[in-house]
Write a structure and sequence with these properties.
By secondary structure, the protein is α/β, with parallel strands linked by helices. About 35% of the residues lie in helices and about 10% in strands. A hairpin with a 2-residue loop joins strand 5 and strand 6. Helix 3 (about 100-115) crosses helix 4 (about 130-135). Mean pLDDT is about 90; it is low at about 200-205.
């Protein structure tokens, strides 16, 4: 929907209707954040800023993405085993939290992406805004890392990595990594109660 003008955000951002990143044809995992931030709007890539780097490194530490060394966000490699997207595809002014109206306007694009992913098994909404778009309510703190269902897909809510930046708390980062490490078990139908998977630390993650 490249010419979408439903909510007006296309007029206030640099690059409207940010496209997803990843292998749509083969990926089993779709990660949906809330909206592009300043870095994402400038570079035209989802989850590429400071919060996105936390998520990308967590995917590597859990063995979901391969490790590729890079020194700045411009050189960040494109993900291969997941698809990254947002439930609101235009950056709100001043990185404001997207409204329900704005995310509702974009959700047809999310559904279209889902329909174009033949191998999709697991959807991961990060943060309350994305979670609300899928299940109609918030509660990310209590639901993060839990296996749910949405329509015919598995769904695992995940706290937004920006909360780690705000908290500046190592325990919060460890919890985030442990939740990401559950993804392989959920895909393989082998998740056990209180199983938080395995992950290893890389590059001071």
């Amino acid at each position: 929907m490249p010419d979408c003008e439903k909510c007006g955000l296309d007029k206030t951002c640099l690059h409207p209707n940010l496209k997803p990143e990843g292998s749509i044809e083969t990926a089993e995992i779709l990660i949906c954040a809330e909206a592009p931030g300043q870095d994402e709007d400038m570079l035209q890539r989802p989850l590429i800023g400071e919060s996105g780097q936390i998520l990308r490194k967590a995917l590597v530490s859990a063995g979901i993405e391969a490790f590729v060394e890079y020194t700045n966000i411009i050189d960040t490699p494109i993900v291969k085993n997941v698809v990254l997207h947002n439930v609101c595809t235009c950056r709100p002014p001043y990185n404001a939290t997207p409204t329900s109206k704005q995310t509702n306007c974009c959700f047809d694009q999310v559904r279209d992406l889902i329909n174009r992913m033949p191998n999709l098994k697991l959807i991961i909404p990060t943060g309350n805004v994305a979670l609300r778009s899928f299940i109609g309510r918030q509660g990310i703190t209590s639901l993060s890392g839990q296996e749910l269902t949405w329509e015919k897909f598995k769904l695992m809510p995940l706290i937004h990595p920006s909360s780690i930046l705000y908290a500046k708390n190592r325990n919060k980062l460890d919890e985030f990594n442990a939740h990401v490490a559950r993804i392989p078990a959920i895909l393989n139908n082998s998740l056990m109660t209180n199983d938080f998977g395995k992950w290893y630390k890389i590059n001071n993650l």
